Every structure is written in C-alpha cells, then in structure tokens.
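G.,

No rush on this.
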Amino acid sequence: MAKLVSWCSTEDHPGVQGEANRLLAWTIKNSKRSEVIKTVAAASGVQCLVAMLAAEHAVMRNEALLALAMVAAVAGDLPEETVQVLNDKTMAEHLCAILKEAKDEPTAANALAVVKLLIPIGILIQLVQLQIGAEYYCLQPRRA
C-alpha cells in the first residue's frame, strides 16, 4: 500500500500517477471493507483521494468521490490525522468546485453524499465559510 501511495504523488510520469490514484480508489470501492480503508488511511492514501478531486477528467473526480464516500462512512474509526484531511479546507474547496461545475447529476449527487457523510466531522463549516466568507465566525464550534 505504501508503494501505491508513493506512486500517487510521483512527478516522474503522469500516467503512473493517474493510474495509481485510480487503483487506490478502485481498491477502496471494490473491497467494501473497513479494514482496507484503515490500511489506505494508515498509508496516507486519503490525501491522494482528496487531490484526485482536482483531476482534469470527470471520471477520475467521480471515482475519488465514490471512494471518499466510503472513507467518510467509517470516519469515526479512522486516525485523527485522516479525519483532519477529510475536514481540511482543501477538501472543502474541491467539493465546492465540483458542485459548482457539475455537469451531470451523478457527480453532483456523489459530491453531496460525501458532504452529508462529512457533516458530523465539521465539513459543513468549511463549505459555508468558502461560500459566504470567514466573517461568519458564529459558525465556528464553541470552545470552552
């Protein structure tokens, strides 16, 4: 898994990088097992899936959305570092861009499914801040 994740960020060959990302998403989608998702998360593979949301091709973005939906479904069982990646501003930016640019219903539906699954960990706050600005600080979680 570590080798696959390293290929996801290689700069040597774009074909290898693209196919490694697709294989990572395929592995999650087709295994349908939380143990596999935990293995991918432990190898820092979730960051690759988030980066895949910015891919040029709609098919790759949709593959990433499907895999991330499965990851988000078990977010409560994942390490804190992985949850932070899912709740990061970069993830919110990619989801906003996909929702704004979605030209087909399945892509928009998959993006909304990911958002719905991530609401419990706070992604909604990031999305709202991106849309209406950070001046709405009242949306921030209250700190004791």
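When you get to it, here's the other one too:
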Amino acid sequence: MALSENDEGALGCLIGVIVLVFAAIGFTVAADKLQKHRNRAAESIPEIRDQEDELIALSAKEQVLRKHLDEALAKHTQTRTELAGLMVRADEAAAKLSALRGEKQRLESDIQSLEPEIRIAARNLMKSARSQVMRAAIPVLQLNNGRVYRDARITAINDDRIRIQHAEGSADITSGLLEPEFRTKLGLKPTATSP
C-alpha cells in the first residue's frame, strides 16, 4: 500500500516518538544501573562518575532531540494546514474550470447555430451596400496605380473586380487597384494590382 506524503511525514514523526520512548526506557535502565553502582564499593567510584557524565550527556542529547521533534511536529502541522488550504483552492479552481468549459461549449454551440444567419445577413448587407454604391455617381475615381477616371459609375461588382462606365468609356478594375477603404466597402477580395 502506497503512503501519501502526509502519511509518510506522520509515520516519520511516530517513529521519532518511538525512538524517544525507547531512549527514555534506556535512560531509565541506565539510571537504575547507576544507583546500583553507587551502592557498591568505593573502588567503583571513577567508573560511576564516567557513567554519570555519560548520562548527563545523553540527557542533554535527549533534550535536543525533543526540541527537534517538537519543531518537526509543528512544521508538519503547519504543512498539513497549508496543504489543506491548497487542496480547497485546487477544488475551487477545478469547479470554475469545469463551469468555464461548459460555458465555452454552450457559446460554441450558439455560435454554430447563428453562423448560417450571420452569413445570410452579411450577404444581404453586402448586396445592399453594393446596390447603393452602384447607384451613386463617382466624380473622380483614383486608383492605386495613379490612373484617374472621371464621372464613373459602377455597373458590375464581382468578388475580385468591378466594371465601371466613365466619361471616356468603360473599364474592368481589379480590386487590388482600389483604395483599401473602397475595396472593403464593396466587400471585394484583394488581388494583384494589374488591371
């Protein structure tokens, strides 16, 4: 069975506590031993003093270990609290993402259902705009290549060119020769600039 990081941290802390318990038991046994040695003959006093020094050193180490264990437990508790907060935020973000995906799908569906209507409306609008331009007289029509037509009137509009009547005759003009604004108004596609 795999352990999560939280469980591993808690297990580490539990092992530390067990080690300290065994260390405390060891210290207790050592203290009993020390007492028995004190009761023995005077020739054992130097050995007893060495063991007392060792116990004092072990006691100091135990205090340091307890302090480290307390700090580790405090950090572990803080980390678990932070992790819980992050998990809540992750759940909230996942819920928002799910809602946004649903909204995106709904909008895409709405757009798909409106596309045919939009295409029809755009075509009708373009026809209307072209019809208005075809009725209007253009006193001066200047092309991008410098050519100028006077008293022009548009007689036909295709996707990439127009046909005009002007003071000197008629002409076919590709959309690339028209000013961009005029070309856009007519809904023409850009082409090469040759007539």
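The two ends are 79 Å apart (CA to CA). Residues 85-135 form one domain.

Enjoy the weekend,
O.
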